[in-house]
Amino acid sequence: MSLDSLPANHFRNRRTWMLHMCARGPLFYAWILTFTILAFTYFAYWDVLQSHSSFIYGKIVFVELFMCLLPVMFIAKKYSALLKVRSFMAQEVIERKPSARFEDWDIVALHTNAYLHEKGLWPTAFCIFNGEECFEFFRRCLRPQNVSEVLDDEDSRRFQNAFRVYETSLEDYWNSDENFVALANDEYEQKLPRELYRCRFTWNLSTLRRNMSSWFMLIPFLVSLRLGTDALLGCLVGAAFSLPILFFVMDTIKRNTPSKVLQVLTFLRMKARLEPENEVEKWDDIARFMNNYLFRERVWQDREYFYDGNDCRERFKSILTSILSVQNLQKRLLPPELIPFAKLSNAGFERDGESLV
After folding, report:
1. Separation of alpha carbons 88 and 92, rounded Å
2. Any stretches that span the bilayer, and where are they (predicted)?
3. What's the rounded Cα separation, in Å, for the pair 297 and 103?
4. How far apart are CA 70 and CA 31, in angstroms?
5. For residue 212, is pLDDT > 50?
6. Angle between helices 28-44 and 53-83 (to 10 degrees)
């Protein structure tokens, strides 16, 4: 089997892959037909229904919920299928001992896909998109604390051994300098947004324009239709109405980034490696590194995620709080296997009298 058989090498993105898989399902054409009929009746009887605004809004909500029905069914079916092959996936991890890098998990995803198709649990060999998705499913569903059902002794030992391999891979990634020395001198010299923009507001506007979906730009137009005003006035009112919402959405996205285990581990290790404490220049270097790293990993669409070193430092403290705080541990905002690495990174704050725990 070749790694080219993974869905990530056949589809443009996850959305096209999900649409392909939904189209293979038995209910897809019934779903399309029902949606077409609902949309046709909505527009065909628009004049009649205009006087019943509550009915119109109710139908819009119903159509939107109906559109989400098939993707939700797809996700539920996929999750159910993967739960049935956890023992196989655990054995693959034990035998192959993949590192924390997603490329090593591609082979585990490939073999799990083939096993799912062979056992008739999935219609094609395209169940898991890539190694990253396989990695995330493994750490969430094979962690011994997350397994709710009673397992026999063999499966229990297999899960524990597989998770021990995963934890060892995180330690190896932490101890390997080659993952961090790769930062070239020209990346250190790359300018931060603080040096490129007049102020944070202009940087936020630029970031909003590049990173938010173009569909959000329809908000001013929709507001103008709702108000029944002329196009120019409506767009101005719509822009004034939508801009705070877009800023809030973007800020929410940024507050939850980085969120994946390897991204957070890289952030923690870079801080522990440079030991910046209160040195602004070193925090600027960490901000440059993370800006490039998040861009290379396709987490962010440009190299301007952090505005400056202070912005980077505040986000770092927020991540440490999420990992080490007792209340947040109960909520499991970030995985507990990051705790020992967070404690090592927290050492610099303890010396400065700013310990987060």
Report:
1. 6
2. 21-44, 56-76, 231-250
3. 12
4. 7
5. yes
6. 170
Structure tokens at 190: 């790359």
Encode pLDDT of 129-145 as tens digits: 999 999 999 988 887 66
Map tokens 């993974």 to a residue: 6
